[in-house]
Amino acid sequence: MANILVIGASRGIGKAVCLAAAEKGHAVRAMSRSGAAPMRKNGAVEAIQGNALDRGDIDRALDGVDTVVLALGVPASLDMITGPVTLFSKATQVLLPAMESANIDRLIAVTGFGAGDSRSAINPLQRLPFKALLGRAYADKTTQEAMISESGLDYLIVRPGVLTNQPRSGRYKVLEDPKKWRNGVIARADVADFIAGRLTDETLGCKKPVLIRWHL
Known about the structure:
The protein is globular and about 45 Å long. Helix 1 crosses helix 6. Helix 1 links the parallel strand 1 and strand 2. It is α/β, with parallel strands linked by helices. The chain has an eight-stranded mixed β-sheet, sandwiched between helices. Strands 7-9-11 form a three-stranded mixed β-sheet.
């Protein structure tokens, strides 16, 4: 059993990870600004209120944890398209030294297809709309990925394609070979299923897989 902290747990993939991990019997601490606990069928989810940019909140949340899942998101809005996006890199800048101080070396971070070196795998026809709509957010996710890669942690960077709210299928593709990276569609519940399945791996392996169910 793992003792995990999920940062960004009130919605989206973070919420889905809390549910999937709890159902597998892991001890889950769910951190969000609201402090709301995701509903669950089995297992326990401990909800705590906290700000991912506040070192004190992060230090308190890390107590007794062996694995951190960083699953922050920003709502789709005009600000995301026109304004600066810095949440991902700033939260990571706070988290990494806090993990070092707490002697925690396992980090699973959710970014997305198009972040880091997966950007080169974007279909040429998709590059212009991707840059226009998601360019600022993914530039910050690229910075985030670089920080994690250079941290010395045992990490797993998860890069899902276009996200849906469909139920878990269990029939998704984990693309680790850069030559096979493609954009696609995947349910948040399937991303959470993949992450929950890695929590007891002896090592996360410093990998950066792309996750999709169907190609676009």
